[in-house]
Design brief:
The chain has 491 residues and is mainly beta. The chain is 2% helix and 53% strand. The chain contains two helices and 36 strands. The protein starts with 20 loop residues before the first strand and ends with a helix. The relative contact order is 0.14.
């Protein structure tokens, strides 16, 4: 990627994003013409949440990427004058069709429209007019189409909130991607609690549907609070019958504070891949608000590396959604820095395990009471802690000491790992940690080290002897070729 002032310590190496400016939701995730395409919400002019366009990455192998010219931009005076907002894309008869939310200052809702590309997503021709011009009766929020093929017809979900307080995914179908018929509620639920104190909220953004055969599937949504805005991500495993989805209890899709708007797509080899928006945790008042630190940095937001999504048969009526880093991430592993087994003694003094890179891939097996500490300052006062709470069977990820800059947000979050041993994989990338358990749970958290020294890994304990086994590899940066024209690069 071209050099840029954004090349500072917090800029990621294995998480996709342009060199500068604002990024949020992944959009139009699709495999087409031999490429994985990942479009995304993008402000080409600043690091603030405004002026939404669709940026565009593509790759043949998920390791080598091209950053292509802007794919979709608002039309002045048009239905999308205030932004080309979130949606998805499908392949039809060798062409690429993008569906998106058209934002306009005169509407509280975001109607659905589309655009067609005959050159692999390099250029698009917008549909004349709107595909779905009005929301269904009884809705108070309506946005973010998700389209997929089901046999000889096309289907669409749109995220919604209902007047009766439920979050919902409403559904439509079509024979030709042009004329759409409303088919009622696909899934609607009252507000339900989630682990960590969050809940499923009154509105659902980015409602998506992963189907796994035999009617089994999962609805994914981003929980939207009408007062606070973006909250967290949710999955409902269930079964589709007669055009409606019957779901079990909701799952927290990611247990961390900084993961939102997941977008999914099937691949030619039969996997479901999922990308998401990993937002900032700097000095902004809330998600999407401006912040002095963000303005200084000149960039905000990144995309998660792709995750493989599965629906496990675990003895519950509908199974559970599980995830792991896409196997292609393994190809980025370089030198192994740490390969050690040992025990933290009862005096709880940290054990130094060695130096690691700021982009690293770790695996660990921790006995109850053991933990890992990523130390990022020479004096040891700046660190990210991961500790296995023997009382609850949770992994506690604590960033209260992870930045010496007082503008960085703190807090701790819990990830269920069980009561016998914690088998973990941790992807570190300069200012983000993604933690995965062997059971397919995940937690994503941002942190902002400013200590300036090489990173070190330590094993920690809670005052009782506890065993650990840890491996750590360097991660090579993604190969990203910036193919945008010079005026766009300079914006």
């Amino acid at each position: 990627m071209s050099s840029s002032p954004a090349r500072k310590p917090h800029f990621p190496a294995v998480h996709l994003r342009p060199p500068l400016n604002w990024l949020n939701d992944p959009n139009g995730v699709v495999h087409h013409d031999g490429h994985h395409h990942v479009f995304f919400q993008y402000n080409p002019r600043s690091a603030r949440h405004a002026d939404m366009h669709w940026g565009h990455f593509r790759s043949t192998d998920l390791v080598h990427w091209e950053l292509l010219p802007i794919a979709l931009a608002p039309t002045p005076g048009g239905d999308d004058a205030q932004g080309v907002w979130s949606g998805n894309a499908v392949e039809s008869d060798g062409e690429l069709v993008a569906f998106y939310s058209a934002r306009h200052a005169d509407r509280w809702y975001q109607p659905v429209t589309s655009a067609l590309s005959r050159d692999g997503g390099l250029t698009f021709t917008k549909h004349e007019g709107l595909l779905i011009a009005e929301p269904p009766d009884g809705t108070t929020m309506f946005r973010d189409p998700y389209v997929w093929r089901d046999g000889d017809r096309w289907r669409m979900l749109v995220g919604a909130a209902l007047e009766d307080g439920r979050g919902a995914a409403v559904q439509y179908d079509s024979a030709d991607l042009e004329e759409w018929t409303y088919r009622g509620l696909f899934l609607a639920r009252d507000v339900e609690p989630l682990p960590g104190g969050a809940n499923t909220e009154e509105g659902w953004e980015c409602a998506q549907y992963a189907h796994f055969g035999d009617g089994r599937g999962a609805v994914l949504a981003s929980a939207w609070d009408p007062e606070e805005g973006a909250s967290c991500t949710v999955a409902w495993p269930g079964r589709e019958e007669d055009g409606a989805f019957t779901a079990g209890a909701p799952q927290r899709l990611d247990h961390g504070p900084d993961f939102y708007a997941p977008a999914i797509a099937p691949t030619p080899d039969g996997r479901w891949l999922m990308w998401a928006w990993i937002w900032e945790a700097r000095d902004e008042e809330r998600v999407g608000a401006p912040g002095e630190w963000i303005d200084e940095a000149g960039w905000a937001g990144m995309l998660s590396p792709p995750r493989e999504l599965t629906l496990a048969r675990d003895g519950t009526p509908y199974g559970s959604v599980r995830q792991r880093p896409a196997r292609e991430l393994d190809r980025l592993r370089g030198d192994q820095r740490v390969d050690v087994s040992g025990e933290v003694s009862a005096d709880a003094e940290p054990v130094d395990l060695g130096e690691i890179g700021q982009a690293s891939d770790l695996t660990a097996r921790l006995a109850p009471g053991a933990g890992l500490r990523v130390v990022t300052s020479a004096d040891g006062t700046e660190y990210l802690d991961l500790s296995y709470d023997r009382a609850t069977g949770d992994l506690v990820v604590d960033r209260d000491h992870a930045s010496l800059d007082p503008r960085a947000k703190g807090g701790s979050w819990r990830l269920p790992v069980g009561e016998e041993a914690a088998d973990l994989r941790v992807v570190l990338d300069h200012s983000v940690a993604e933690v995965f358990t062997a059971a397919g749970e995940a937690l994503t958290i941002r942190f902002y080290p400013v200590g300036g020294s090489p990173w070190r890994l330590q094993a920690t304990g809670d005052g009782s002897a506890a065993a650990y086994t840890v491996h750590a590899w360097d991660l090579a940066a993604l190969d990203i070729q910036d193919k945008r024209p010079e005026p766009e690069l300079a914006s």
